[in-house]
Structure to design on (440 residues):
């Protein structure tokens, strides 16, 4: 293969878009060609830089609100403080998509305390569902807390505590950067049997310690608390007792 | 920007359709905003156009019969963005560089300051790219789209996605290497 040909294939190779035959041809060429190898390295490092630079521009909360409001046909009365069922209906619909669980959405509503927390619950669940839907559970795959923790360095303005709880039945799968309410935060991913738990962690703004509060009995739910100056928000479809157990382990 | 003509769009959807929209399309709101922001190189215009595109999507939704909802939505976002660029970009001053970032580097550790500088450098470089190049890179590297999805969204043959990406990346590399950049004191 000529370098010209290899150069045209290099990007497909980099992106994992070549079929096996052409990928093999490219690899054989690159083995003996320092120029193409160097170019591949350069492209790989460019990609890493782009991905590490946190350039993704998620929808700001105001846009999300506007769109959701447009989706909810207003009955006419300006009952601004009344709960808006549309938001919860959409959460329920989104959950069904993941085919993991369709459950007591009402629970979300019951324990809702003010709009801020409601929005946060919606955003955290969005983020969790998006990660499942796009097959983008983790940016860094590792069961080793000492690999996951340093990975966040330089990507966030804080360092999230990372512990492996494999011995306790919650093996760490990895971590990812996620966007909740327009801010980039750490998401740690734990497994529980076949289930996935997203643990969102960010610096607590007000109270450094708050007792855990949860909202779901079976099916999808979240539990949230603050501990040691960090706010934790866990979303999953595991049983509520398991959410509480994870919460307890993370507060040890 | 122009007022949106989709005023009565949402009310045309039945409850079932609205629910389907919420379940299939809304989870990709971030993707919609991200693409519009990068095509327009502006936070505020990006938000306006993303909003307009979502309302269009609502209106067109009865015509969406399966397929990849993210690609479907992003195609609408892309069209809305190009329409906006065609009517507004000429009126604007040649190249705008927003200065909307106000970090507090004094309060942050060194690693963070470096990460921030790197981020700005990459953002600027990406914004200097011609729109068509910027678009394939954003779809591939930020959005993680496959070649097939990129071809669908940007309405180009699958076979040309790879070469557009190759050209876009080389161009970006050149911009990044470009004006001999200052070394930091630590490196001297």
């Amino acid at each position: 293969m000529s370098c010209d040909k290899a150069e045209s294939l290099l990007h497909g190779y980099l992106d994992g878009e070549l079929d096996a035959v052409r990928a093999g041809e490219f690899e054989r060429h690159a083995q003996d060609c320092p120029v193409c190898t160097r170019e591949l390295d350069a492209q790989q490092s460019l990609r890493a830089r782009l991905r590490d630079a946190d350039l993704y521009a998620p929808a700001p909360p105001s846009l999300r609100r506007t769109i959701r409001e447009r989706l909810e046909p207003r009955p006419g009365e300006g009952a601004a403080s009344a709960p808006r069922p549309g938001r919860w209906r959409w959460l329920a619909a989104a959950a069904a998509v993941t085919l993991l669980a369709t459950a007591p959405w009402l629970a979300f509503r019951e324990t809702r305390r003010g709009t801020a927390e409601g929005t946060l619950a919606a955003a955290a669940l969005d983020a969790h569902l998006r990660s499942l839907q796009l097959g983008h559970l983790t940016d860094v795959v590792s069961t080793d807390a000492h690999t996951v923790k340093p990975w966040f360095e330089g990507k966030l303005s804080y360092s999230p505590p990372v512990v492996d709880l494999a011995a306790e039945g919650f093996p760490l799968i990895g971590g990812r950067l996620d966007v909740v309410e327009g801010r980039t935060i750490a998401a740690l991913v734990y497994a529980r049997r076949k289930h996935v738990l997203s643990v969102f962690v960010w610096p607590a703004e007000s109270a450094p310690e708050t007792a855990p509060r949860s909202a779901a009995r079976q099916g999808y739910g979240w539990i949230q608390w603050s501990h040691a100056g960090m706010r934790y928000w866990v979303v999953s479809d595991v049983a509520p007792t398991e959410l509480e157990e994870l919460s307890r382990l993370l507060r040890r | 920007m122009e007022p949106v003509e989709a005023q009565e769009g949402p009310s045309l959807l039945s409850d079932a359709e609205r629910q389907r929209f919420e379940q299939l399309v809304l989870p990709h709101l971030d993707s919609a905003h991200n693409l519009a922001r990068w095509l327009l190189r502006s936070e505020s215009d990006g938000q306006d156009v993303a909003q307009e595109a979502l309302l269009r999507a609502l209106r067109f939704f009865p015509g969406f019969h399966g397929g990849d909802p993210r690609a479907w939505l992003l195609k609408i976002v892309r069209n809305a963005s190009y329409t906006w660029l065609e009517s507004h970009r000429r009126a604007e001053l040649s190249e705008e560089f927003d200065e909307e970032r106000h970090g507090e580097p004094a309060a942050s550790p060194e690693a963070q300051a470096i990460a921030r500088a790197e981020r700005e450098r990459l953002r600027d470089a990406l914004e200097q790219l011609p729109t068509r190049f910027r678009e394939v890179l954003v779809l591939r590297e930020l959005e993680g789209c496959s070649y097939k999805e990129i071809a669908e969204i940007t309405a180009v043959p699958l076979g040309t996605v790879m070469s557009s990406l190759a050209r876009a990346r080389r161009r970006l590399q050149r911009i990044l290497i470009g004006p001999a950049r200052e070394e930091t004191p630590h490196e001297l």
Summary: The first helix of chain A runs from residue 3 to 14. The first strand of chain A starts at residue 140 and ends at 141.
